[in-house]
Amino acid sequence: MTTGPASDSATRPPRFAHSPTVLSRTTGETVILLTEHVDEPFELDAPAAAVWDTFATPRTLDDALGALGASFDAEPDRLEADVARVVGDLCARGALHAVG
């Protein structure tokens, strides 16, 4: 069995953070994002903006779920599915990226 940093990084869940190239502006309860991967800015509603804000510092999906769980009155499975969907969308648009 291999131990040490190489094996630890292979088994740890990914951490996500704001992409360094994304531009964001908060307006009320929404956030408007512009990335180099899309031609037009896109808007996040209040729940998606809360997910976005959670990744201002690198964290895993489980860490984000823990932080968001107290803010939303939702079943854990539903919250996990919704947050995973938003994270997937933000990654696809280049707003979030996986970090070491």
- Category from helices, strands and their pairing: alpha+beta
The CATH class, by name, is Alpha Beta
Query: Which of globular, elongated, flat, extended, rod-shaped describes the shape?
Result: globular
In total, the number of strands is 6
Write down the CATH topology. Outer Surface Protein A, domain 3
Summarize model confidence as the mean pLDDT. 89
Strand content: 15-25%
SSE string, helices as H and strands as E: HEEEEHEHHE
The major pleated sheet works out as:
3 strands, antiparallel
Approximate helicity band: 40-55%
Q: What oligomeric state do the depicted chains represent?
A: single chain
Task: Specify the number of helices.
Answer: 4
Cα-to-Cα separation, first versus last residue? 23 Å
Query: How many structural units, i.e. domains?
Result: 1
Radius of gyration: 15 Å
Query: Per CATH, which architecture?
Result: Alpha-Beta Complex
Low-confidence stretches: none
